[in-house]
Structures are given as structure tokens and as C-alpha cells.
Amino acid sequence: MKKRFKYTIAAIFATISAIFAVPNGAFYFEQDHASFRGSEDLARLELYLVMGRDHGSWEQVEGGYSAELNIMTQIIYEGENIFTDYDAFTDRCEDPGGLDPLSALPRQMNFSMQEGKYTIRQSVFNSENKVLAQGEFEVEVPDFSSGGAMLSEIELVSAVVEQKERTLFSKYGVYDIIPKGSAVYDPGKQDIQLLLEMYGLGSKGTDYRVTASVLDLNGRLVHGFETEQFSVSQDMEVYINRFDIGVLKNGIYDFAIAVEPVGGSEMKRVKRIYIRNAVQDIDASAGGIYSDLDSVQLDSVLANLISLIDKDELDLFRRSSEKGKREFLTNFWSDRVLRRGEGFRREIEQRISYANRQFSSLFQRGAITDRGQILIKYGYPDDVQVYSSISEGKPHDIWFYNKLEGGVEFIFVDLDNSGHYELVHSTMRGEKQNSNWENLIRR
């Protein structure tokens, strides 16, 4: 197999106090990435991590305390693990009890990569090989080999400081760029600082404009910023700026940077960001419902609603602290009620109750089964055909919705005769499809 990357830089270590917000509770671990133009027609993929210092691995040593930690990074391409790296490092402090609760460890790894889609899987271990945290995400490395005008991906930045000595945070011979390592923004951190590289914008002196904006997930403008104008001074221009996003409510947004050389075509890069625990008015009655629930119970509540949220909303919920999960659920209903009326909430609650009565087993409550989730999402079917006899193959149900897309079906099969019905096929767009589903019901 053709080698798709070069491992160019090991990992970097620094302790930054009061820059990264570290939630209370479990060990804090966030991941992010950005791609830039590299050399030899390869892109430079930068992986960013930020982790809490509440790892519980401190040992007293001369002059204070230290903890040995290890990060395993795996790069997966087309289902094959093409690279694994174990990066050991040491965290040190004078007294763990005196650590600033907001302090955290940012780290960075750089790879020279061919363009393509990769899976990045990372785990943090302590000295006893106990897994403290794990994370996995997809990256799509762009093709920077064309040589024309183009933009890097957006790097979210925690701090830009004057370079005093060369470190692996150092860029452009002037600054140390401390990565944020996370696309989540918490209260008191309601500004976004970013870095963007711009290539081949034109000859020296060519003017170009940069416009930043915040978009919703449908691409509609939520908040705009003033357009800036600059002149090209070299083949690679660097744009670093900070923007106030305190006006944004809890939710998921795309932060967009548009670059337009005068007389040229506009180019745009977009970075998905998550606003969590933002300071805003919360509906008191809705908030009260969740005020006494712990994180596990809040996860259980969300499981009932999983078919009503998208992947980005689920990601935001999973990234949130216990307080953030409460606010997510509160805002989930506030948003839906605002758009669809209070009757929508009552209807969903009735569907959840019905699903729990009809589809629950000793091992699983009905609302989180496949049948329960389809009922919660689409409502009660117009017709149901039930096949339960042995002569008709494995027990299965066929649900018909006559008003969806001109009529759709959902087929649920009890594959192991346990009473657990699994969705194996649907004619509804976006749902699970298997044209050979009938083979599954044959005994």
C-alpha cells in the first residue's frame, strides 16, 4: 500500500492556566484538528488535544509531584490501521491540591498526509495503563497540490504569545500559537480566536477582503462581522483574529471565513463550533424537570429523544458537563415548542409513554427500541401487519405510513426469537435499507 503520510513531529507539551475550561467530574479530554498546505504535494495535518490535570496519577518526587501519561494515536484509512504511535510525557506540579481547576494540558501532533478521509482514534493512559479517556473522529484532508489560490482549514486558537524560544507551538518565527483543542465554548469564554492560512492570493500589492460570519446549520446568517481589507505581501498570508460570540445562544453553529481577492473568486472555510452552558435565560419550569437528575439520568432522558436530534446535537450533548446536559434538554424543548407549539411536546411525551407500555422488555425500555424510536419520530403507523407464526418465518412486523413520501414501510424482525425487534429495512429515505431483508426472516 502506498504510504499516505509522514510522521514529522512528535508531541508537544505545555501547561496553560486559566485558558482552557475544564468541566467538573470525569477526566477532561477534547480533540480537534486542522489541515494546512505542506511540502512535496502533501498536506500538513495538525491534531490538537487538551486534557485536564485531574488524572489522579500524581506521585511525589523531589521538588514536587509528577505523573506519567501516555497518548496512543491511531490513524485509520479505508478500515485499515496504517499508523499507531505511543507518546509518553510527564506532567509536573508543586502541589496537586493547589492546581488551578481551569489549568489543562494542550498537545499537538503534526503529520504530512496525502489528501483523503481518515479516522483518528486516540486514548490517554496513566502509568498503570488505565484508560483515562478515549476519543475518535473523522478528518478529510484537503488536496493542496493544485498550486492555485486556496485556504487552509481553520485552527481554533487559545492564545497567541510572542515567541521567546523555539517550541513546537512556534509558527512563522514570531509567535507561539497555543491550540484550543476543542470546538466547545463555555461561559466566560465567549470569544473565538482563530488562525487561517491563505495561499496564492495574487501578486504583491493585490488587495483582498476577509469577512467572518456565524451561520446556522442551514447556512443562514446568524451574526456577521465587519469586512476587513488587506494587501498581499507574500505567497502565504496568515490571518489571526479574535471575534466576540457572546451573543450566541446554546447550540451548534458554523463559523465561516470568506476570502475574496479583488477581481478574483470568493473562497470560504467553515468550522463547526458548539456553544455550551451559555449565559442566557432558561425557562424555569422546563429547567426544574431536570434539576435533580444526575448525568446518567440525563443520558437516559436523551435516549428517548435520540431519533429527534441530529449527529451534531448528539455530539454537543455528549461533550457537555452535567449542567450543560440539563441546559441542552431545556433548550431542546424550548426550541421545538417555539417552532411547533406546546402540543408537539405533549405529543412526543405521549408517544414515549405508549412505546414504553407496548415495547418494553426485561432488558430494555420500549422508548429506546427501534420500534419505539420510529414511533416517537414519525408517529403512529396507519397500518401494522404482524407475523408471529412459525410458518411465516421469524416474527416480524411491517408498519405502513401512508402520508410519508407517498407511502413508506418499516420492517422490524425478531432476529433471535428473544422478543427484541430490530429495524432491518425501510423505504423511507434516510432510514436503514436492506433490499434483501426477506432473507432475514427465513428460518
Plain-language structure description:
This protein has 4 domains: 1-182, Immunoglobulins (Immunoglobulin-like, Sandwich), CATH 2.60.40.10; 183-276, Sandwich (Immunoglobulin-like); 281-365, no CATH class; 381-443, no CATH class. Strands 10, 11, 12, 13, 15 and 19 form a 6-stranded antiparallel beta sheet that branches. The protein is α+β, with helices and mostly antiparallel strands and 443 residues long. Residues 1-25 and 277-287 have low confidence and may be disordered. Strand 5 and strand 6 (80-93) form a beta hairpin. 17% of the residues lie in helices and 42% in strands.
Bulk shape:
globular
- Count of helices? 7
Fold-level CATH name of the largest domain: Immunoglobulin-like
Task: Name the CATH homologous superfamily of the largest domain.
Answer: Immunoglobulins
Kindly summarize this structure in a few lines.
This protein has helices at residues 284-290, 295-304, 311-319, 322-340, 342-359, 370-378, 438-441, and strands at residues 5-11, 29-37, 43-52, 59-61, 64-77, 80-93, 104-113, 116-126, 131-141, 150-151, 155-162, 170-171, 175-179, 184-185, 191-199, 207-215, 221-224, 228-231, 236-244, 251-261, 267-275, 383-387, 396-401, 408-413, 422-426. 17% of the residues lie in helices and 42% in strands. α2 packs parallel to α4 and α4 crosses α5.
